[in-house]
Hints:
With 89 residues, this protein is of the alpha+beta class.
Amino acid sequence: xxxxxxVFAQDSKGIIAYVTRLLAEKEINxxxxxxxxxxxxxxxxxxxxxxxxxxxxxxxSRFLQEKGxxxxxxxxxxxxxxxxxxxxx
Length: 89
């Protein structure tokens, strides 16, 4: 299964490293990544492969949100099929 991970925060050093380390710890592969700065705000969207992740989607979502809050990051994950359906015209 593939999913979309979004990250929003005040810009600071190491955000990409922190989030990708969290994903790697759970055996999640990053397939594509896009990040940008809008003035002092950081935004990142990643397409990830969850095939080897042992956590349920709900557990993974909770884990990312909790770890994000520890660092002042707003991290969300959404299944790719749901994301695609929501953004189809």
